[in-house]
Amino acid sequence: MRNVILFVVFVFSVSVAFSQGSVSINTNGDQPDNSAMLDISSTTKGLLIPRMSSVQRSAIGSPANGLMVYDDTTDSFWYYNGSAWTEIGGAGASAPWLTSGNLGTTPGTDFIGTIDNQALDIRTYNNLRFRATTKGQLEVFNTGGSVFIGSGAGAADDLTSNYNVFIGDNSGYGSSSGNSNIGIGRNSLFSNTSGSINTAVGVSSLYANGIGQENVAFGASSLANNTDGSWNVGIGNGALYSNTSGAANSALGFQALYSNTTNGRNTAVGYYSLYSNTAEQNCALGYYSLRANTSGEKNTGLGYYALSANTTGGNNTSVGWGSLQGNNIGEFNTSVGSQAMYSNSGGSYNVALGWDALYSNSTGVVNTAVGYYALAYATGSNNTAVGANALAATTSGEHNVSVGKQAGANNTTGSDNTCIGFYAGVNSGGLSNATAIGSGCVVDASNRVYVGNTSVSQIKGQVNFSTYSDRRIKNDIRENVPGIDFISRLRPVTYHYDIDEENRLLNIEDTYDWDGKYDIEKICFSGFIAQEVDEAANEIGYDFSGVDREGTLMSLKYAEFTVPIVKAIQEQQAMIVEMKTENETLKEQMNLYRYRMEQLENRISQRAQ
């Protein structure tokens, strides 16, 4: 009875039609569609298929191929594919990919792509845009050959043979006709319009570039303000940040050439190198090198802090840690070596080669220092030092020349000195116009020239040494040179040298030894004792120039002895002439006496007969 009632309700509530084996439900008597076995029409209700849990679904015995149920455990439709249950449109791991996102995926197992030997295409507006080939290439298809990835990337690009690559939000946002540009990073090449062949990598790199060509920017905000400058390379955060129209600049390092705007042909490599630069043709390599330079041009700074304080000085060359570090306005300086010319500020036309060479020079000009610590404390000008520690202690002295290790090392305020040779120098810091030539030669008085050290036993030359003796350069000429009176007081002696005592008295620290150093002590010399010669001259009131009383040791100028010797000879000659005249007179008198004697003898003989 229950079944009958249900059938009656079904008949009265549903309009059923049959046509050629097809059934329609609720179609108001219309024939069912010929392609459907069951045609159901409704605008207010849906179709419910069997609902069950995953356990119940799995318990269905021998499910038919294509059997469908709704699994209320997974909230998805399932069908049997002949061998296993498969989820349709659900969020489970075996569900197909959804445009609204998927859950429960497994990397390496779930993917979008093909499993046969076919490429994967991506289309928009039914136009092929992107293809992943079976060989792994990623191909982009558009008329301009450009690639844009990111919101607003290449927004203004007309896609007409531009070959641009913009990756990052608003990268290449304003680019319209520029071609062959690469922008990677948010806002990179943001303002570019017609600029071409630019490469920008980093947030806001080449941000303001409009028409600049062939620039390379790597790093956040590198070349950020460049508008029309071309052929620039900025690598490092903030490198060439302020550059607008400067061309042919190269900056490598954090904020290298940061302040440069319109000037070109600069090269900066290193953290903060040429940071403040606004000039041209400078080259900086090293941390803080030429950091403060503003308007100075044609400078080269290579090394940590090289020329770091330079502002307006130009044509300087600095190579080495801290070399010319303090230079500010000095020009045409060349410094090579760690801390060479470290303190120079306004000095110009100086050359320093070697560690700490010309270290203290600030305003001195035209100095040349070659060698470790050469002219290290110099503040004067026109000095030349070649050799380790050469003129090392010189401060305000000027016009000095020293060549050799520690040559002129003791000089401080003396000027116009020349020291040539290993340890050649002066024994007092204030001597002037002193010349020492030879290894270990030391001058102990101003206005003197010494040749050779205390071991020198001979000084030879092809010709005699000449002394100026022109009448035109002599005043107050007098004939008052003593002769025999002076010469007769001299005591010629022989002697041997004691060079250790000589070096001690001359304050020479002679620790260097070599074969033959003491050979001079074996030689028996002939000469005078300076003190005795001086005493002899004083006894007769003779201001004898042959005695050198200045300096630590008294010395004799043996050539000066020629004059009193000549005078003595002249005096002797006068005496000889006088004696000869007297002799002639005596001879005449003797002859007269002989004649008279003969006459007397003749008379006596005649009388005797």
Mean pLDDT: 89
Total beta strands: 35
- Enumerate how many helices there are, as a single number: 6
- Assess the beta-strand content as a share of residues: 15-25%
**Radius of gyration in whole Å, from Cα?**
56 Å
Largest sheet: 19 strands, parallel
Question: Any idea what the shape is?
Answer: rod-shaped
Specify the helix fraction band: 10-25%
Question: What structural class should be given to the helix and strand makeup?
Answer: alpha/beta
Instruction: Please name the CATH topology of the domain at 120-265.
Output: Alkaline Protease, subunit P, domain 1
- What CATH architecture of the domain at 120-265 would you give? 2 Solenoid
Whole-Å distance between the termini?
A: 237 Å
**What is the highest CATH level, the class of the domain at 120-265?**
Mainly Beta
Query: Which regions are unreliable across 5 or more consecutive residues at pLDDT < 50?
Result: 1-15
Describe the structure.
With 609 residues, the chain is an alpha/beta fold. Among the domains are: 2-88, no CATH class; 120-265, 2 Solenoid (Alkaline Protease, subunit P, domain 1); 480-609, no CATH class. The chain has a 19-stranded parallel sheet, with no helix packed on it. A 4-stranded mixed sheet has the order 4-5-6-7. The longest helix has 47 residues, at 562-608. The termini are far apart. The model is unreliable at 1-15 (pLDDT under 50).
